[in-house]
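Now for one protein, fold included:
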Amino acid sequence: MSIAELKKIVEDTSSEERIFLAAYLQHVERRDDPVHRERLDRLCDEFSSSRRYSLKRVRDLHSKLEEGDK
């Protein structure tokens, strides 16, 4: 499939579908990155450790993850 064909498919999708595609492409780009996997593993361990988090703490963690994507 050519780039032109892919562009056409993307242009014909809804805004919601493009958001999903963007997130999926970002996932594909980072899924084998050891630094990214380590960060996800650390966060998963932190969240599954039965600790409770305030909404502020969750928002702070989310902001840090977003900053790491830039």
